[in-house]
């Protein structure tokens, strides 16, 4: 934990706005003596994505600008391109949404008008029959327009999947986080071409990624777990054990520090969260307990006081999609950290 790992922790991680941290990530410096290669890979991908979405930050510092430009054609830039294509292929643009909504609204109007004209047939059958036929023709045209719009959307999404696959295929991954990312991109594209029921065919690959320590395997570990939950939503993963086996959790040799670390335990349900997650405190705590939500770089987003409560709700719909850290700490200094994945 940060308060017992000594020189193995990098102080700059406590503040996401610390320029020194961003500079060290951009330069590829050793952020941690405990797990250097994976730490660099995950941090640099996160930094590149951050710079890609914020030209203000990107242009605020020459080192960050150079880092972004130099990595546009490397795996960092290409993975971001694949991510953008996958997101585009999995959604409908606001332009087409507006067209569909307008077209559907006109179809409903024609349906209502046809129903009204049908009800007036007894008054003037010839007149209202003519009106009904014309409105049926208009509605058929609108339905044809809707079909054409959906075909255009499908063509654009198919092209996005092809572009994403093409870029993903040429990426030469370095290290576990990048290899997992490439594998998950390939699996997602494959499932799109096949059928969701075909997920069992790729299940061994997905499980291999899902069972890794998230701190070495990267965000793809959570992505794999989310896929597996479609088949079995009760699956659980022992991150403490898997990470400990890789030497990522470093418990201090002093007994009190180790005891403090294990004093509190809690679960996040659901995780990934969409809208809200329940913090379920599993270990009895005395006195005031503080619950905090931080970014992966350590920036404090929110902090709450929990007074002997067993459950607390964090409403996640006001935060951006991504991975966050939930920290639970009591008056004795005992604390525990868990990762929370927020979906939109």
Strand percentage lies at 5-15%
Detail the poorly predicted runs.
Answer: 1-17, 250-262
Give the structural class: alpha+beta
Q: What's the gyration radius in Å?
A: 26 Å
Total number of β-strand segments?
7
Order of strands in the sheet with the most strands?
Answer: 4-3-6-7
Which bin fits the share of residues in helices?
40-55%
Q: List SSEs in N-to-C order.
A: HHHHHHHHHHHHHEEEEEEE
Question: Largest sheet at a glance?
Answer: 4 strands, antiparallel
The gross shape turns out to be globular
Mean of the pLDDT scores? 80
**In oligomeric terms, what are we looking at?**
single chain
Summarize the entry for a quick read.
The chain is an alpha+beta fold and 344 residues long. It contains 13 helices and 7 strands. Mean pLDDT is 80; it is low at 1-17 and 250-262.
Describe the structure.
It is built from 13 helices and seven strands. The protein has 344 residues and is α+β, with helices and mostly antiparallel strands. The radius of gyration is 26 Å and the shape is globular. A hairpin with a 4-residue loop joins β3 and β4 (300-307). It starts with 18 loop residues before the first helix and ends with a strand. The model is unreliable at 1-17 and 250-262 (pLDDT under 50).
Keywords:
344 residues, alpha+beta, 4-stranded antiparallel beta sheet, 3-stranded antiparallel beta sheet, 13 helices, 52% helix, disordered N terminus
């Amino acid at each position: 934990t940060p308060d017992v790992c000594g020189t193995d922790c990098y102080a700059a991680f406590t503040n996401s706005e610390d320029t020194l941290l961003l500079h060290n990530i951009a330069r590829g410096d050793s952020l941690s003596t405990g797990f250097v290669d994976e730490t660099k890979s995950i941090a640099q991908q996160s930094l590149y994505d951050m710079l890609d979405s914020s030209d203000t930050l990107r242009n605020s510092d020459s080192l960050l600008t150079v880092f972004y430009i130099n990595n546009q054609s490397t795996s960092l830039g290409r993975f971001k391109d694949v991510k953008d294509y996958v997101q585009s292929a999995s959604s409908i643009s606001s332009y087409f949404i507006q067209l569909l909504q307008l077209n559907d609204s006109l179809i409903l109007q024609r349906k209502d008008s046809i129903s009204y004209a049908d009800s007036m047939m007894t008054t003037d059958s010839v007149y209202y029959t003519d009106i009904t036929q014309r409105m049926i023709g208009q509605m058929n045209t609108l339905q044809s327009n809707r079909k054409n719009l959906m075909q255009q959307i499908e063509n654009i999404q198919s092209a996005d999947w092809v572009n994403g696959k093409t870029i993903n295929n040429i990426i030469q991954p370095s290290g576990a986080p990048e290899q997992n990312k490439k594998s998950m991109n390939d699996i997602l594209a494959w499932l799109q071409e096949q059928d969701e029921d075909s997920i069992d065919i790729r299940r061994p690959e997905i499980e291999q990624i899902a069972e890794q320590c998230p701190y070495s395997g990267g965000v793809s570990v959570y992505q794999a777990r989310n896929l597996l939950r479609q088949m079995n939503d009760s699956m659980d993963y022992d991150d403490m054990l898997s990470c400990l086996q890789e030497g990522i959790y470093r418990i201090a040799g002093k007994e009190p520090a180790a005891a403090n670390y294990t004093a509190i335990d809690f679960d996040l349900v659901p995780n990934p969260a969409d809208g809200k997650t329940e913090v379920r405190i599993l270990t009895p705590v005395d006195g005031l307990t503080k619950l905090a939500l931080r970014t992966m770089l350590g920036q404090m987003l929110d902090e709450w006081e929990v007074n002997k409560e067993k459950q607390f709700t964090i409403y996640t719909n006001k935060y951006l999609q991504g991975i966050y850290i939930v920290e639970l700490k009591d008056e004795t200094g005992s604390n525990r950290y868990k990762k929370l994945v927020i979906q939109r």
